[in-house]
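Students often ask why we bother encoding 3D structure as a string. The short answer is that it lets us treat folding as translation between two languages. Here is a chain of 314 residues written in the first language.
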Amino acid sequence: MSRVSILHVTDFEYDGVVSESHNEVRLRPRDDARQSCLSFRLSTRPASGGSVHQDYFGNWVHRFNVLAPHRTLRIEAASVVMIHPAPPVGELPSLQELDDRRLSLTEEFFEFLAPSHYVPHPPALGELIAAAEAAAGGSVAGFGRAATRMIRGRFRYEKGATHVHTSADQVLSTGAGVCQDFTHLLLAMARGRGIPGRYVSGYLLPGGDTGDAVSGGLASHAWAEILVPGEGWLGLDPTQGDAASERHIRLAYGRDYGDVPPVRGTFRGHAGQRLSVDVRTRPGIDGTGRELLRETTGAPVGTAPPAAAPQQQQ
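And here it is in the second language, the structure alphabet:
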């Protein structure tokens, strides 16, 4: 599919009345040489106004506030993305050439080489880095591909084995995780070898040519990109055990998950919450060539305001 329509729905349900919900989302696909965001629409229920800006890494950030009392919050992001074929990243330079350029790379890409909250550099990584280098064929790209295959082969995909705050060193001890965890582990290996790497959040489109919808959050995904000096950024998906392809749609990138959460916010009120996410992807045009976008509207919920209460994060 060269053009794809994406509908990303996030629902918060609270077990009490909340108010003063302040949120920011990174749900607008990026524009670059590999993809173009042709249209984007963000709507909420209850309805809200908002603002938009680009963060340090160039990701689109939409902010909105829901001040009226409410028991539910729905966020819908609808976009149409054009996918551009990209030339393959070459195998050069060698790891030795990378080492010779270490100082200049550190100065230019410090944030993608330094340890971060989710991507520390634990000593236990040494064995994995050495094994990946032995299978790399001497090149930077080869190291990335070898590390990607290694993570796919040595660690098991298991929902519930980790949580949203799990870091790379914890994945080493559990031996299991999900796409976010495997991406952090791959970044720790790359940065530990002196290769700049960045975390990517986005969508993984369904395989094949059927164009069937992917639902239940299966399309929401995370992977990594490592810098191959002189060639560009090489996308690697350790969950799939292979390089990223045209099926990977990028929303945002940063040092780790902490820079690019799809939804982040706080609210005021004494209430627990339940979160559900649904992502659907399908061909972005119908039989007549018209874009397939769903428009939604919302209105504030008329509920009595609660007593003053502390802010909580969601």
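Translate back mentally: Residues 43 and 76 are 5 Å apart (CA to CA). Keep this in mind for the problem set.
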